[in-house]
Design a protein that fits this description.
Helix content of chain A: 40-55%
Largest sheet of chain A: 7 strands, mixed
Number of domains of chain A: 2
Order of helices and strands of chain A: HEHHEHEHEEEHEHEHEH
CATH architecture of the largest domain in chain A: 3-Layer(aba) Sandwich
Number of helices of chain A: 9
Oligomer: homodimer
Number of strands of chain A: 9
Largest interface: A-B, 58 and 57 residues
Strand order of the largest sheet of chain A: 5-6-4-3-7-8-9
Strand content of chain A: 15-25%
CATH class of the largest domain in chain A: Alpha Beta
CATH topology of the largest domain in chain A: Rossmann fold
Shape of chain A: elongated
Chain lengths: 209, 209
């Protein structure tokens, strides 16, 4: 499989949807699927699906469709789920807690190896197989444990301080729930932002318009 | 202020960012701001900002800039934060809990008035000022309490059932954390999806590419 260079962000953002749909199909024991059927399941259109998947090298065969398990495996490789990346959660308030307990990061290629919170009351608490640590340990811990990714769950006003420590430790990828824009300060990182408030405000707008 | 019809989704999605930035400026006691300065703060460019705000009627004055409090108030009205909408959380697992405790929906124009979970162990528990109810109460409760918005925190496989009840109750707007697409089944609703797994998978792709 040969990847085209410069895949556009919209295509990249659709990949997880393909992955999810293919996983469901595989679980249902479906071996083969046409781009037409796949497009129905994904509320997309067949030609977009063919175009998207062509960006990553051709998978399908005309008149035959895609082999579900093969396509799923290829997309797994493209997304990088097949390589586990060590990650830490910074900020163990409700959001950090919810992500830790609710969200199976392992399923998506991330292994949670550390939890940090600046609240002394929380430090030392054992949660699952991890112990909440002081943010003062970030640099040492992340270097020693080859941490690649940080999940930023601290309030925006504390985010820059925490990111400074993480960056110093060599952490170059951020799943960022704060409003501090990591990539503006550090241009060589990758960042994926989740702004819940902006999503809810968008809904508010849509309700009345 | 006159709104242009057919505002594009990218513009709408930028409005919450304007709102947030203006709130910070107001809190800092800044009265007036140019589109240039605003663009720096928002990592945008001045001409886009002027264009965006023009969609909703002109606010600024050339060479003078925008009055922060006026602009904030106008955007508040446009987004609809000035009108409180009753909302319920369906699914009170970690995610539902995190949103309830962590997320100040009131700040964004939503009042949480009900919590629902199908787990009998949870039903009857008092959380803050609300009591967790059985999903069997959804229709009656939502009709009686003029609920406009539902926050869908149940697993995807249960989402359709819950949405059926909500829709029957007249709920027409959905903040949806599941992968069940509400608007595909009910075309007259507004829906804002948050797909955490897809966001993390996108990050995974970006790390290795």
């Amino acid at each position: 499989m040969s990847k085209s260079a410069n895949i556009s962000m919209p295509v990249i953002r659709r990949l997880p949807g393909y992955y999810r749909t293919l996983k469901v199909l595989e679980e249902k024991g479906i071996d083969r699927i046409s781009s037409g059927k796949l497009s129905e399941l994904m509320n997309s259109n067949a030609s977009q699906i063919r175009q998207d998947l062509n960006c990553f090298g051709g998978f399908g065969q005309q008149g035959y469709g895609y082999i579900v398990s093969d396509l799923k495996e290829e997309i797994e490789k493209i997304i990088g789920i097949d390589r586990t990346k060590n990650a830490v959660i910074c900020g163990f308030g409700n959001l950090g807690k919810a992500l830790y307990h609710h969200f199976d990061a392992n399923k998506y290629g991330f292994e949670l190896v550390g939890l940090f919170d600046s609240d002394k009351q929380k430090q030392g608490q054992v949660v699952g197989k991890l112990t909440i640590q002081s943010e003062k340990n970030i640099v040492e811990f992340c270097k020693a444990n080859n941490v690649e990714t940080a999940i930023i769950c601290v309030p925006t006003k504390f985010a820059e301080c925490v990111v400074d420590l993480l960056y110093e430790s060599g952490v170059k990828s951020y799943w960022n729930f704060s409003h501090f824009k990591v990539s503006t300060k550090y241009s060589d990182v990758v960042e994926e932002n989740v702004h819940l408030s902006e999503s809810l405000l968008t809904l508010s707008y849509l309700i009345d318009n």
